[in-house]
Amino acid sequence: MGSIFHQVILNLRTVGSSRFGYLSHKTLCTTSVQGTNGDYARNLNKPVSGMMMPRSGGIATMMRLPYQESTKGLDACFVGIPFDTGCSNRSGTRLGPRQIRTESCLLREYNSVGAAPFDSLQVADIGDVNITMYNIKRACDAIQNKFQEIIKEGCIPLTLGGDHTISYPILQAIKVLIQLRFRTFLLTKVTFAGKESMRW
């Protein structure tokens, strides 16, 4: 990919009416990364700058990155799990993925310490896992299957949730890759207060 210092060239192509110069969300998010030999290695997705489109505009994807339906060609992807059925006392986290995406329009391509993940990683928002809100076991199966599919493609999932229930199927999906030691919450406990399986 050439030098660590890549020259980033914005690839702005107008779509629609050239008279008004409309830019598509995908076009605003795409840049070309040039290596030291002058070849364009690959197009990388970048958050849309507030200088190009107001922060209040555009499609509400995570960090205003492009949306794509599959993980093909991605190093990492944002995926939402709008689920809170396992949290009977304080519902509302099902709205988390949507609100996180809305607020993420304020995030920028580079942060205050100079981290630049979008200079070397291909990242996009692949939307939400299609789940039922009425059957926890079926929802967990759908989450596990989706994450196994993402991992099989060699993509790293960056999850927007959702209540603590979603941790269990995600861990089930990635257990083939790594071993983890972690502090657990009651929602991932097999038995609690004499009752079996809080997850189902």
TrEMBL record:
Gene Ontology MF: a single term: agmatinase activity
SUPFAM superfamilies: Arginase/deacetylase
GO biological-process terms attached to the record: putrescine biosynthetic process from arginine, via agmatine
InterPro entries for the chain: Ureohydrolase (IPR006035), Ureohydrolase_dom_sf (IPR023696)
UniProtKB keywords: Hydrolase, Metal-binding
Pfam families found in the cross-reference section: Arginase
Family, similarity comment: Belongs to the arginase family.
UniProt-recorded name of the protein: Agmatinase, mitochondrial
Species: Holothuria leucospilota
